């Protein structure tokens, strides 16, 4: 359990450092402030880095205490649920462009809800899947004017 408690903040520090270094590779803008595109990713990376360091120090303080939440992560179907969600997210990323936002979101959300809730709640799964997908599509494409594939 100690490896998990220390490993997660260290992983977050590494990811934040990677994003911070990668942010400096973003090309400068041709119009307006040339450094404008850099501000948000750099600020976000520094914010994530600071939070990760705080998280690490908090975990180091409680390193020897028993934490039932971490223990519960490895019991039951939690790990399987995390793995299925990650796999469905990867599949969603691959089908997003060829199938479009609406169809791929319905497939992704439908599979996820049927996995989590089971077939007994099929009406709620379908209603949530279709309504969420259409409302999100309408909000982005019609209200915000964002072009979705």
Give the topology.
Layout: H1 2-23, H2 36-61, H3 68-73, H4 78-99, H5 101-117, H6 122-143
Describe the structure.
The protein folds into two domains: 1-67; 76-142, no CATH class. Helix content is 77%, strand content 0%. It has helices spanning 2-23, 36-61, 68-73, 78-99, 101-117, 122-143. The N and C termini lie far apart (43 Å).
What's the helix-strand series?
A: HHHHHH
Which outline best applies? flat
Strand content: under 5%
Which percent range fits the helix content? over 70%
Total E-strand runs: 0
Rounded average pLDDT:
88
N-to-C CA distance: 43 Å
Number of helices, counting only DSSP H or I runs of 4 residues or more: 6
Low-confidence stretches: none
Label the structural class.
mainly alpha
* Rg over CA atoms: 20 Å
Largest sheet features: none
* Number of separate domains: 2
Keywords:
2 domains; Tripartite tricarboxylate transporter TctB family protein
What is shown here, in short?
The chain has 149 residues and is mainly α.
